[in-house]
Automatic annotation (TrEMBL):
Domain GGDEF span(s) in chain numbering: 202-329
A Pfam family annotated for this UniProt entry: GGDEF
SMART domains per UniProt: GGDEF
One term under GO cellular component: plasma membrane
Enzyme class: transferase
A GO MF term: diguanylate cyclase activity
Protein name in the entry: diguanylate cyclase
Entry's transmembrane regions: 6-24
Reactions catalysed: 2 GTP = 3',3'-c-di-GMP + 2 diphosphate
Keywords: Membrane, Transmembrane, Transmembrane helix
GO biological process: cell adhesion involved in single-species biofilm formation; negative regulation of bacterial-type flagellum-dependent cell motility
């Protein structure tokens, strides 16, 4: 056999092997794609930076007609992750055991690898589904495939579970009548702010106020009208506060406003404005309602109990001095 014939034979074998490998990869990809499409969850195969395969369920949610159009778009699906800080509030008390929500900015371009290296290998995301035009909640589980640089991503729809969780959370933390924070939630937030004040030397202040002669409202008009006054009052106050201000029903006709990074002078001015707004507001049935205010600030050595004792004394003084006024201590 000549040297040329030998080279030709080797080349032919190489070509046959390459063709066989090519056919094998095509068939293997078809088998993998069929497997992915058999699942209702969104399933994705990806390396660190690029999506390589996605099933039909994922194409529908992200708004693509085919795998080809999806791959040609070269899209990073993390761009679809919506900010969900409100839901993240629910995990603040148990961060180690909880699965956080992330958005498009949380982990940057290496978000897949970051999740894969995390203890739980899971995150939650909120995505606007282009299939049903609704925000949907998903829990993503990322697994590194053995003997490969690829990852498998499984998106489980947890929207119903999250809706139930948020409903339970709301019942536990919100006053059902006024739809503002309740005392349980306020106590938790107060502990956190007290810690920040002491550790970072931040300013924080407290307003305690209640409705003057509220018992007479209930006695003269009935408890339904009294409830209406509480609802109207809480709505009036809420629109006068900043988004970061904490507003809670302390109990009965008493309310608390907790303000971070706010001076005592600024807080006293706010209490005065609120007093005036309430005084000139015409309530549905009762028409005229006034409130008395106590104001104080966090001081060195304060505990939550000392803080509330001082603001309660300020409120008591406002009541004793004739009501419908602000006293600062």
């Amino acid at each position: 056999m000549s040297e040329f014939t030998l080279y030709a034979a080797i080349l032919l074998v190489v070509l046959i092997l390459a063709l066989a490998l090519f056919i094998y990869k095509i068939r293997a990809n078809k088998i993998i794609q069929t497997f992915l499409n058999s699942h209702d969850n969104i399933l994705i195969l990806s390396d660190r930076h690029k999506i390589n395969m996605i099933n039909d369920a994922g194409l529908k949610v992200f708004g693509y007609e085919s795998l080809k159009s999806f791959l040609l778009s070269n899209v990073d699906i993390s761009n679809s992750f919506i900010n969900n800080e409100i839901d993240n509030d629910a995990i603040d008390d148990n961060k180690k055991a909880s699965i956080p929500y992330i958005d498009r900015y949380s982990y940057g371009k290496n978000w897949i690898d970051t999740i894969a290296r995390s203890p739980t290998k899971q995150v939650k995301v909120k995505i606007f589904s282009k299939e049903d035009l609704l925000d949907q909640n998903y829990q993503i589980t990322v697994s590194k495939l053995k003997f490969s640089n690829q990852y498998s991503l499984s998106f489980t729809n947890i929207s119903q579970l999250e809706a139930k969780r948020l409903s339970i959370k709301k019942q536990a933390e919100y006053d059902p009548l006024t739809n503002i924070y309740n005392r349980v939630k306020l106590d938790r937030l107060l502990r956190d702010i007290s810690f920040d004040v002491k550790k970072f030397n931040q300013e924080a202040t407290l307003i305690l106020f209640d409705i003057d002669h509220f018992k007479s409202v209930n006695d003269d008009y009935g408890h339904n009208v009294g409830d209406s006054v509480l609802i109207e009052l809480s709505g009036l106050v809420r629109i006068s506060l900043r988004p970061e201000d904490i507003f809670a029903r302390w109990g009965g006709e008493e309310f608390v406003i907790l303000l971070k990074n706010t001076s005592l002078k600024e807080t006293t001015a706010l209490a005065s404005r609120l007093r005036q707004e309430i005084e000139k507001f015409h309530f549905s049935t009762v028409k005229d309602v006034t409130c008395s205010f106590g104001v104080t600030e966090f001081r060195a050595g304060d505990t939550e109990r000392l803080l509330f004792k001082r603001v309660d004394e300020a409120l008591y003084e406002a009541k004793e001095n004739g009501r419908n006024q602000v006293v600062t201590k």
